[in-house]
Amino acid sequence: MPTPVRRATLIAGGLALSLVGMGVSAAALTTAEPDKRATLDNDNIQGLRVNLDGRGSLSTMLIGLSLPDGAALKTYCVEIDVEIDRDHPNMDEVPWDQYPDPDSLFHENRDHINWILHNSYPAVDLEEIEESVDHSFQNGLSRREAIAATQAAIWHYSDGANLARGLVTPGHPQSSGDVRALYEFLTGDENEGLDEQPAPELALTPDEVSGEPGTVLGPFEVATSAEIAELSSTLPEDVTLVNGDAEPLGGEVSDGAEIYVDVPEGAPDGAGTVDLSASATLNLGRLFVGADYEKHPTQSLILASSENTKLSVSGEVSWVTQEPEPTEEPTDTPEPTETPEPTDTPEPTETPEPTDTPEPTDTPEPTETPEPTETPEPTTPPEDDEDDEDEDEELPDTGAASTLMVAAGLVALIGGLGLTGFAVAGRNTRS
């Protein structure tokens, strides 16, 4: 099978975690802004009374809270001057910076309070506490002594209260030394503080994946603060959950796991869910304040121990066969006509080089044209007698007389030309 990652199709999104039966959204928990509801109950564990400077003798106890799913919580008081209001028992978990009194020492000392919760009772067994404290406890450290010392140390940081000198456990003088020794350890140099711890988490990212049959969808990525989470699904029988190596997944996954959904080829369109559930413990140091604190103030509490609570989350998956887009039938392409081969272009003939143009010869100067000689006026013929006139009129005009005149003119012209030529010839000879 191909690597699922290469065939994965997913729709991005974020998935909120739900706290079963608590009305708590996962978004609140994953952003460290939980809105969990708890209720005051009577399952308290009593400690010894302690004497405080300027405050007298106060009772101490682990105060019980319960979650809607039945999980039991144990808390200490972090607001010494406010009494518990049993008539308004609802408590909401909030971040540390939402402590109701802005001027309280809690804000600057909350890290030290959290360190106490993680290093004293009930988070740590009594025997382990004895080993940590340089003191010889009378008949060992009792639970009531541990609660009294721990609550007094927390009040030291949240409200500036201090144990009184002398007897600190009225009515129980044998416990005074043990309580003081543990109190001084919890407020001493060992306490370097501890930051607020994250809320329990169970999440799938993204909240939805989709694709086509014949592909591996996903992955869903698991994020959880629990050691393991139980994996289940609501899917058709032939659709399976696999890991990144295309191997079937079992019933448990851990933080950072990747979940793929293998949809076989030819599977009908469908959908389903991938489901996770886990048991997780609320981290110590979670702060609880009255749900209606402004109208009905009640003592603020901080978590000292917790039973496991259940978390659950689901992601949706769907697959749909994509219909291929219709393609248009191609029209017949006309066959191309043959292109006639080009005929050979005749090579150009060489152009003959032009011959030298002969230089023009000198044009002879024109000769002077001789002035024409005057034609002598014709003499007037003598008058004939009338008989001659009559004879002339009777003789037909044959042209003889005209011929003679033309001939005479030609002779004269030729003679003129001859004289001209002679003159030119003579001029040339002289020159």
Describe what this molecule looks like in 3D:
This protein is of the alpha+beta class and 431 residues long. Among the domains are: 4-11 and 200-282 and 314-319, Immunoglobulins (Immunoglobulin-like), CATH 2.60.40.10; 31-198 and 283-307, no CATH class. It contains eight helices and 19 strands.
Topology at a glance:
Blueprint: H1 4-7, E1 18-19, H2 26-30, E2 37-40, E3 45-46, E4 50-52, E5 56-58, E6 61-66, E7 72-77, E8 90-94, H3 106-119, H4 126-132, H5 143-159, H6 176-186, E9 202-205, E10 208-211, E11 216-224, E12 229-234, E13 240-242, E14 252-253, E15 258-262, E16 270-281, E17 287-290, E18 301-306, E19 308-319, H7 386-394, H8 400-430
Parallel strand pairs: 10-19
Antiparallel strand pairs: 1-19, 2-6, 2-8, 3-6, 4-5, 6-7, 7-18, 8-17, 9-11, 11-15, 12-14, 12-16, 13-15, 16-19, 17-18
Helix pairs in contact: 3-5, 5-6
With helices defined by DSSP (H or I, 4 residues minimum), what is the helix count? 8
Order of helices and strands: HEHEEEEEEEHHHHEEEEEEEEEEEHH
Distance between the termini: 128 Å
Kindly state the number of beta strands.
19
- The geometry reads as elongated
Oligomerization: single chain
Q: State the share of residues found in helices, binned by percent.
A: 10-25%
Q: What profile does the largest beta sheet have?
A: 6 strands, mixed
Low-confidence stretches: 1-35, 378-431
Structure classification: alpha+beta
Average residue-wise pLDDT: 79
Domain Gram-positive cocci surface proteins LPxTG: 392-421
Biased composition (Acidic residues): 382-396
Protein name: TQXA domain-containing protein
Biased composition (Pro residues): 337-381
